[in-house]
Amino acid sequence: MARHKKMQAPEEDEPGLDISSLIDVCFLLLIYFLVTSQIVKKEQELSTSLPSTSPSETPPDLAPMLILLEGNGNISLKGETGVVELIESDSDARELTNLTPRLELHKSVADTSSQKALVQIRVAGDAVQQRVIDVLNALAGAGITEITFTDINDSEG
After folding, report:
1. 41-49: long-range contacts, CB 8 A cutoff, minimum separation 24
2. Domain 60-149 carries which CATH code?
3. Which of 55, 63, 77, 107 could join 117 via S-S bond, C-beta 3.0 to 4.6 A?
4. pLDDT at res. 26
């Protein structure tokens, strides 16, 4: 007597997706981007001191430098005589190559006369915020920490 073995139907294996190598690649990319990313200094970390609400009793001997930031990105300096001099006209440049030496000169003159280097910034209402940050970065690079934002108009003396 012959025994007949029942043939079992082969189990249908559903194709599976092995994602262990995908997880490894994701972790490697995560580590790569963590290691290669640069930590950028935030504006909050700049050591600038804003003026108090009450004006000081004695005016400074060294006149503050007045920086005018226009809506189109132009940066000008207004002298004591009222003459406005265009310093930076390239609004796409992040490094202010013409303003930085002027700020360093103002800082060295103030240090020589044992005074604080004071800077006033007048920003037009339609100016780009990044341009203001570029000016603040240039001030921090020159070591100037006494900064005031002002609303002095060109028509005023």
Report:
1. 43/133, 43/136, 46/136, 46/137, 46/140, 47/140, 47/145, 48/136, 48/139, 48/140, 48/145, 48/146, 48/147, 49/145, 49/146, 49/147
2. 3.30.420.270
3. 107
4. 93
pTM: 0.59
Q: Which pLDDT value is given to residue 58?
A: 61
Query: DSSP state, 137?
Result: H
Higher-pLDDT residue of 59, 105: 105
What is the mean predicted confidence (pLDDT) over 116-141? 88
CA separation for the pair 55, 40 (Å, rounded): 34
Phi, psi of 85 (to 5 degrees): -115, 125
